[in-house]
Amino acid sequence: MTHPLKTVLVTGATAGFGHAIALRLVKDGFRVIATGRRLERLDALAKEAGENLLPFQLDMTDLDAVKALPGSLPQGWQQVDVLINNAGLALGLEKAWETKPADWEQMIATNVTGLVEITRALLPGMVERNAGHVISLGSTAGIYPYPGANVYGATKAFVDQFMRNLRSDLLGKQVRATNIAPGLCGGSEFSQVRLGDDAKAAAFYDKTKPLLPEDIAETVAWVLKLPPHVNINQIEMMPTCQASAGLAVDRSMA
Ligand code: NDP
Ligand code: 8X3
User: Fold this and answer.
1) Which residues, in sequence order, are bridge partners of residue 17?
2) How far does the centroid of ligand 1 lie from the alpha carbon of residue 87, in Å?
3) Where do the structural domains in the chain lie, given as residue ranges?
4) Ligand 1 centre from 2 Cα, in Å?
5) 180 lines ligand 2 (CB under 6 A)
6) Which pTM was predicted?
7) Which of the residues are catalytic?
8) Of all atoms in ligand 2, which is nearest to the CA of residue 153?
9) Does the beta carbon of 7 lie inside 6 Å of ligand 1?
10) Tens digit of each residue's pLDDT (9 = 90 or more) over 113-167
11) Which end of the chain is more exposed for a tag (fewer CB within 10 A), N or C?
12) SS (H, E, C) 192-252
């Protein structure tokens, strides 16, 4: 591979999208720094991927650790050319007034604050070298509201606008910025984490053919391999079995 951007840092590589993205990008010839909280998962991933994958434990809510990047990475891995902001989570599907405050805080800390701080840590190096790419995982939940999405959807709307604003700041630099916003996607731990129950999580995908982590990895790989003069700003993607089906009307009040 002769891609000018060589080293990719993927957040949340212990499961789901991040795991698939890390494996795919190693296969495509990149060096990948795979991060997440569960070190045993990262070590297993490193065994599978080989020497071009560095397992690096990182909790996105540990802001001291996030801000210590890239200097805290081992020698030879400190030049991060591509940042993939994937780590994130949804907690619960309750109505806003029934949710746990700690769940909202955890979503904001991970999906917004952690993402912003790691971008702040790694972007200056890209700008200085005048080469780089930041890809974030937003969500259709940041575009289309639905009951129970409340703060989760709002964090993803933040990601959408943050990436658009990065593009504005990066005009004139050879540093790209992309937001990928998927809809229903199975094959990851997302719904188990959200619902805290394996049976409920499985039922969520009942009779559907959702996107899979490999579909997201394919999309990331494509966005990355486009020639440097092409910037994909936004991708909204859904499984064919899903669509935005219009606004709801309550007819019980007349
Ligand atoms: P998974 O639950 O399978 O994976 C989430 C990853 O994020 C895990 O590797 C987890 O690692 C990591 N993570 C969570 N919290 C932290 C933290 N505090 N610090 C570091 N890493 C953390 O979910 P998906 O792969 O499905 O989701 C990936 C991203 O895509 C998320 O941002 C999600 O919001 C978004 N998304 C998901 C969709 C879906 O339907 N699945 C659709 C649209 C967007 P660990 O627990 O080891 O720290
Ligand atoms: C995940 C997609 O529709 O479950 O971001 O919110 S959805």
Assistant:
1) none
2) 4
3) 7-237
4) 30
5) no
6) 0.98
7) 152
8) 6
9) no
10) 999 999 999 999 999 999 999 999 999 999 999 999 999 999 999 999 999 999 9
11) C
12) HHHHCCHHHHHHHCCCCCCECHHHHHHHHHHHHHCCCCCCCCEEEECCCCCCCCCCCCCCC
